[in-house]
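User:
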Amino acid sequence: MKRVGTLLLACFALGCEGWVGAPPEDEVSECRPVEIFPGARLLTRVEYRRTVRDLLGEPNDPTLDFPPEPTVNGMNNDARTHVVNPLLLEHFMSSAQLLARGARERGWHHLVDCAELGRGCAVRFLERFGTRVYRRPLTTTERDSLLHLYDRIEPGLGADEALTAVLEAMLGSPQFLYRFESLRDEEGAGAEPLGAYELASRLSYFLWGSTPDDELLRAAKDGEPDDVNGLDHQARRLSSDPRAREQVREFHRRWLGLDRFTGLVRQDAPEGVGASLEESLLRFLDDVFWNDGDDANSGTLDALFRSPRLHVDGALAPLYGVTYDGHSSWQPVDAASERHGLLTQPGLLALLAHTEQSSPIARGVFLREKLLCSPVPAPPPDVNNTPPDPDPRLTTRKRFAVHTADPSCANCHRLIDPLGFGFENYDQLGRYRTEENGFPVDVSGAVTDSPDPELDGEFVGLFELSEKLATSRLVLDCLTRTWMTFALGRSLEFAKRQENSLPTADSCSRDDAVTASLDQGGSLREVLLTIVTTPAFRQRAAREPE
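Assistant: Predicted structure:
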């Protein structure tokens, strides 16, 4: 497989061996497996940072200078595009050295229980801590190679330096930097279930963005993740850990493109307000996703589009006319008269705006692409995309009317503009308004030609639009599709059932997750917990043709 050949520019440390542990017997399925996918996944910057934190107790971020990953469908963990390159390899090697020496300075007792250093301690280190670094037991060849490295260094430089070299070699190895999901030998062979250690690793990196803990590795040793009930048990355990909250935040950052807050400039906003707007939006999403309060709709799609909650700090409170008591750095408030779910959050509205005016186009495109999974065609190359200049004699709706007047633009903008104009109660900072330039704001809109005809129709303002979205299976289906892309690190295959053929495992898995969520009142967490037990998540890749 060519891409794994590029794997680490000639397998740069100790070589690459097959996986430990045979997969369970394949199951009878009515879903056609996804046929082609790379069998190795390079850690992203976030995954690398969290992994060395959880393994070594590393307090610093070693990835600050790492090059960014390519983005596919908003996600940065696609295994086909996020591959090693010379610059990244250089950072990996330098980081391995610094991390190993940092671990040595903090003391080996944090990593291995030995009365004193020596070869016996090195053997114990590889058996116990090595399993955590490689996310499965070392093979005999790997163990012998690392012990040989230890034996070469220890006589001249001492046990302390030798163990440091062993750890550096492990942290610079492909076995650490990649998550291998070994392929079947036959070219073109279909997918089959993952082995227990592979599945444990996939589970922890989905729900934590980090390495499996000791309990999960023990469960893998006992074969627990091979059983759907055991996998569900581990998923629920991991989801109750604070690391799951970090990972859900990371998903929301990728889904909504929150890196665009860096350097955000909006008229009437204080300098540096982007950081506060981003945190406010993330706190709203945290509140919706994890809230287990008395509200029956907590943690649901309904809450995502109907919650009146707004989170403010000292910088945001005066911008949005909120009383701020200053007793804590952040304060949640009920803003039911102006806020009704995600679409009315100031951070999102400011992100989907121009510097001096709102952007019906950006807001309409966002809704179609991120919430309906109905991408808008790119504009013709000869079309001028520059927004009209603010005009004190006109409303935004009037200024943007040129789109539907121009025949070359109208076909696409009839899908976008009626959605975007429904946002016009909110300016470029997401402040609520009923007038613009002295004229009443017209917030009538329509959902047109969506993938779900039941969602199509007119609405007035974001409160009405949010009510439509809160009960839409299409929206839950789209959000589930995005979560699956994030979970699997690849583009999904959603071929529909055709005559004499089966739907793909991706289609079945998405349908299972949506159904499970609906059975739990539209629970957002149930989407994640069901994904991990589906065929798409539990299967290894097939071999990619040369």
